[in-house]
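Need tokens for this chain, all 342 residues.
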Amino acid sequence: MRTLVEPEKRESKRERFLDIERCKGAAIFLVVLGHIVARSSLEGHQWYYSLRVGIYQFHMPFFMYLSGFVFFYAGYGTQSLPGYWKFMQARFVRLIVPFLAIAALIIVGKFAAQKFIQVDNLPGRLFESIVAVFWNTGKSPAASVWYVFFLFIYCLAVPPLMALFRGSMGALFFLSVVMYIFPRIPYIYLDRISIYFIFFVTGGLLAKNYQRYFKFIDDYALFLFLLFASIIFPLVYFDTRAPWALLVAGLISIPAIHGLIRTRFLSRNNFILWLGGYSFIIYLLNTIFIGVSKGVMLTMAPWEGSNFFIFTPILLLSGLFGPIILKKYVLVHFPVADNLTS
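Here are the structure tokens for all 342 residues:
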């Protein structure tokens, strides 16, 4: 038998949802905003710390939802066996090769840059850093790009799981709940992989019923966003880090933010649509551009006190537009690198 799951009867031409692209643009903006300060906090700027806590309650669950939505909407969850292997080869090149390249760039770059500028989260010894990328991943120097590694694992695992579950999305969702609840293994990213799988599967569930889902978030967009805000503010105020907080905030953020993006004003916003088109390259390189910009600026002035208000917009712009400029004017001349970052 050569089939994992018999493919569903697919439409000859699938509709492209620009609101998904706009959601990606909004999400990547939040990612960069949250990366301005790495893992430390600045005295006297509780406002940014609170903002960062709020962003981290939902921004990556929302990104995983978008990935799951696109994955299942495109029909990748159910494939023939030959199609599966071909797809996985393409996903390996698309996701794992950039992941490894960025990991190597971060490790080598930090070791080299520490002689000239201040470097955040400096890795330990070279061998330990390399091991941490693959094994002791709680200390991985490539933690800023974990999303692409997770996405590859989900793409690898979901089609066989759907075959095992005879195409049942309910069974897949139940598995994701079990993975979220049970103790997690802090190696090979398995702890985070088990946490974020539920959001990826949620994207698939909603993609399977996207017409009813879109009608629902269009009808109740304001209510959903107010509900989301009423949940996020207490979590930020009490600085809640419990596992249930990420689950609740992540799940409610999905219809709330997607519904907000589909409102009349934001559904016409071309800036976030444009950002969405560059979300992959921004995700891969934003921390590098932020780190270099911060290191150079710190050689001229500290960023405590009022200086933080100067650093913040410059670092935000560096993280957003630095990768885009590199993509448009440099990588375009190197076809392999250009394809890998598109």
